[in-house]
């Protein structure tokens, strides 16, 4: 959109009010972008502008430590813990936003069934029968790095880069 504003003004010679009507944005926005372009010959903002991050440095490290120690902690608990340890006052909503920024997502636990002795015996017999088979041609799914043990509990786990592999 910023380059479009520059093009409409410089190449087509449209007035600022005309650009405002075409792009449905404010006159001050048009003026600020044209001014930025005249000073820097670019429309990208400089780094370091805008709102500062809510947590950084030691507070961010403390947040990650709390998330690692208490993966099922509520936002309120984390805010209180950060307040008591680091003296920062953050709202519950801010903690939710920080979780997303730090790539945590919620995982809802569910109950896993318990197998009986006959099923266990069948599984054991299958593993003994296929012990020496070549398993390199088999694709396994639902492999996870954690186990959920309580029903109804919400855990916050970091999102790691997705891995796609072909065999």
UniProtKB/TrEMBL annotation:
One of its GO terms (biological process) is DNA integration. Residues 60-131 form the Transposase Tc1-like domain. One of its GO terms (molecular function) is DNA binding. InterPro entries: Homeodomain-like_sf (IPR009057), Transposase_Tc1-like (IPR002492). Signal peptide: none annotated. This is Transposase Tc1-like domain-containing protein. It comes from Didymodactylos carnosus.
